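Note to self: keep these together.
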Amino acid sequence: MRQRNASQIISHPPPIQGFEVKHTTKLRFITNAAVNQNFTYQNLLDAICIATTAIAPYDLFSSVKLKQIEVWSIAAVGTSSSCSVVFDGATAGSVGDLVTHTDTSTGIEPAHLKVRPQKKTLASNYQLSSAAVAFYMDLPTVGSIVDVSLVFRGSTQGAALAAQNASIGAIVGSTFWRGIDGLAVATTKFLAPPGVQQF
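Structure:
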């Protein structure tokens, strides 16, 4: 019986990774009111939902990483207006760097911030849905533009989490977006661009 060469032996199938759903995205919003509030990881995960009924949305993903926030905010001509972002989470497991980022518009060009939590701070890691603060934002000018860069991951184990707030008239089975404040389209301060489904 002829002996097989080692190079001809069929190995077992190689290991694979990546069954979980991963989505890297930049979400854009336009403010329809002044903003002065904290934003939680639950708010960020509620930004992309799937409708199980007209009023009962579930988060499409189970964890999120905050990569960057970019803001443009312009004051009326002849006035000034400042905007601020702080990664000020103080909950164990999601502590931010506490750095205050601020810029001022004098009505000629917009205040502009392009900021991210410092590396090796817990706020720069993946986080599960919780009421822990991800960042604070102060945007006194209506019509400010906010881009939030996020990495979402789904889980291969366990069930999806219900979104914090009910939707209004959602189409069952549809994927939809909501503001980073976690609120439905009727009450959110953050409107998605036209053409993006928002309930």
